[in-house]
């Protein structure tokens, strides 16, 4: 692993765990055991580092989600495995992570909105179509409406004006969101499959 790769990996962990604003370049240098001069030979400044970290994180998550969609045996398993992937990050992510991005790095947050959010809406829409074909979801569903319902509900999980995320972890909120979503769109056959796959999001 190169120094830049280690930098991006370490920065990702620190930003998720402590938020973006509270992590300094000095913190990064100490963690990696290198000088700030070395860090600045790879990234121009903290703003650039944040941008690179988010872009790298999103690209990897999209790649992993595409793999899940291909290997999952059915639509219900696909959704629970995607949830499992997302929960891995949410369990260490502090609520102020997204707050910091929105407030101090608006351009990077815009990238999240235009790239990641659009990808997830398309993924959910495709999953609904798949679930209907596999006779696991209700056949009266409109995939466009459901994908937007799901996305709107999921984004509420990280909205501190809606939920006190200091009292209720974001990961717990997301788990509830997933169960609410899948129980709402699944038919009897789909719910039986969910009972088998629920271990992925337990």
Task: Estimate the global geometry from the Cα principal axes.
Answer: elongated
Instruction: Give the strand tally.
Output: 0
Number of helices: 10
Q: Which value, in Å, is the CA radius of gyration?
A: 19 Å
Largest sheet: none
How much strand? under 5%
What is the element string, with H for helices and E for strands? HHHHHHHHHH
Notable characteristics:
202 residues; mainly alpha; 73% helix; elongated
Give a quick rundown of the structure.
The chain is mostly helical and 202 residues long. 73% of the residues lie in helices and 0% in strands.
Please give a structural write-up.
The longest helix is centred in the middle third of the chain and has 28 residues, at 106-133. With 202 residues, the protein is mainly α. The two termini are 33 Å apart. It contains ten helices and no strands. The protein is elongated. It has helices spanning 3-18, 25-32, 36-40, 46-71, 75-90, 96-104, 106-133, 143-156, 170-185, 188-197. The model has no long low-confidence stretch (mean pLDDT 92).
Topology overview:
Layout: H1 3-18, H2 25-32, H3 36-40, H4 46-71, H5 75-90, H6 96-104, H7 106-133, H8 143-156, H9 170-185, H10 188-197
Helix pairs in contact: 1-4, 4-5, 4-7, 5-7, 5-9, 5-10, 6-7, 7-8, 8-9
């Amino acid at each position: 692993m190169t120094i830049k790769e280690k930098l991006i990996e370490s920065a990702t962990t620190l930003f998720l765990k402590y938020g973006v604003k509270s992590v300094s370049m000095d913190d990064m240098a100490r963690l990696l055991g290198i000088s700030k001069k070395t860090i600045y030979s790879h990234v121009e400044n903290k703003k650039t580092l944040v941008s690179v970290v988010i872009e790298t994180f999103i690209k990897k998550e999209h790649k992993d989600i595409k793999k899940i969609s291909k290997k999952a045996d059915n639509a219900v398993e696909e959704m629970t495995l995607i949830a499992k992937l997302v929960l891995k990050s949410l369990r260490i992510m502090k609520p102020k992570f997204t707050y910091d991005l929105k407030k101090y790095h608006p351009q990077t947050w815009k990238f999240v909105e235009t790239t990641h959010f659009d990808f997830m809406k398309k993924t959910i829409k495709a999953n609904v179509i798949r679930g209907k074909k596999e006779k696991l979801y209700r056949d009266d569903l409109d995939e466009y409406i459901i994908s937007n319902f799901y996305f709107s509900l999921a984004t509420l999980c990280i909205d501190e004006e809606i939920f006190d995320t200091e009292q209720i972890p974001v990961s717990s909120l997301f788990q509830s969101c997933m169960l609410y979503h899948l129980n709402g769109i699944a038919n009897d056959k789909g719910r039986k499959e969910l009972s088998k796959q629920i271990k992925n999001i337990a």
